[in-house]
Design brief:
Elements (H helix, E strand, L loop, with lengths): L16 E3 L21 E3 L4 H6 L3 H6 L1 H10 L11 H15 L3 E7 L8 E7 L1 H8 L6 E4 L2 E5 L4 H21 L6 H26 E6 L2 E3 L2 H8 L4 H18 L4 E4 L6 E4 L13
Antiparallel strand pairs: 1-2, 3-4, 5-6, 6-7, 7-8, 9-10
Helix pairs in contact: 4-5, 6-7
Length: 281
């Protein structure tokens, strides 16, 4: 029996770059990150199997493609589902840079009338990593006599919301089209619209980690939701506004691009969590 060690073992994947999570590891522990480390995380390139996952529709919708790729490319992240959504974009940028390059070609159709030419633009992803590193999540809201603490959604919770939203939207556009009776169709559309609105409200509740009043702190999720359903509208609106501002602050910066055909100046925003992001080198 030949016990000689294969020379290939010395030539397995090596880290291509190292990243620090924008969150600073604030909401993590050593069950989520190896030794609780949130900086200088080694990032490996994708394997062929990893890339196939990003081209599998079902795996994309369920979030499994993203989770399995994070496990493969950044093994020091032990539980990708528990990573907050705010860190996911940086993680995906790092994986793509490690697998292809820092440059990514993005197609964009000119929106100007009488043009409509499909342009190709080179986007430098490294600047996105720099951008996310400067972001801050506003987590404290003072309204009336209350102090409300927010916590970013985990990737698991964010994915659940996305799946429910997609299901409702599909029902709105596909099932309603099959209903011939106008009254029944309108009733069905109203039902779906209410469900979408309720999901949006529930998602806002999910951001709330604790509420303090008079020196007492409530962290029980059911109690917080029950309270939020019964508070003055101004409190709900304040919470909603801060959540929306956080989302805006963390959104990928808009690119200024010029149509090569008509010369018009346009805006382009790159999406980071979809199969197209990993579909081309």
């Amino acid at each position: 029996m030949d016990n000689t060690e294969s020379p290939l073992k010395k030539h397995k994947r090596q880290p291509k770059l190292y990243i620090s999570l924008p969150s600073g590891g604030r909401w993590y522990n050593d069950k989520i990150l190896h030794n609780g480390a949130h900086s200088d995380l080694p990032v490996f390139s994708m394997t062929a199997n990893d890339e196939i996952l990003f081209k599998t529709p079902d795996a994309m919708v369920t979030g499994n493609a993203t989770v399995e790729n994070i496990k493969s490319c950044i093994p020091s992240i032990l539980d990708p589902w528990a990573i907050i959504q705010l860190d996911i974009d940086s993680i995906l940028c790092a994986i793509r840079i490690s697998s292809y390059s820092e440059l990514m070609t993005v197609g964009h159709k000119c929106p100007k009338p009488n043009c409509g030419v499909e342009n190709q633009y080179q986007i430098n992803l490294s600047k996105y990593l720099e951008f996310f590193a400067t972001r801050e999540f506003k987590d404290t809201i003072h309204v009336d006599d209350y102090t409300i603490i927010l916590k970013p959604l985990t990737y698991r919770k964010w994915t659940e919301v996305q799946k429910k939203t997609i299901t409702l939207q599909r029902a709105l556009y596909t099932q309603s089209a099959q209903i011939e009776n106008d009254e029944e169709k309108l009733e069905f559309q109203d039902k779906i619209a209410i469900a979408i609105n309720e999901l949006a409200i529930q998602t806002i509740f999910d951001y709330i980690s604790s509420v303090e009043i008079g020196g007492e702190i409530e962290t029980d999720k059911d109690e917080i939701i029950s309270w939020m359903k019964d508070v003055d509208l101004t409190i709900f609106q304040k919470v909603k506004a801060v959540i929306e501002q956080n989302a805006s602050d963390w959104r990928t910066p808009v690119e200024d691009v010029v149509c090569e055909s008509c010369g018009s100046e346009n805006k382009l925003q790159v999406s980071l969590d979809n199969s197209d992001f990993f579909g081309i080198g």
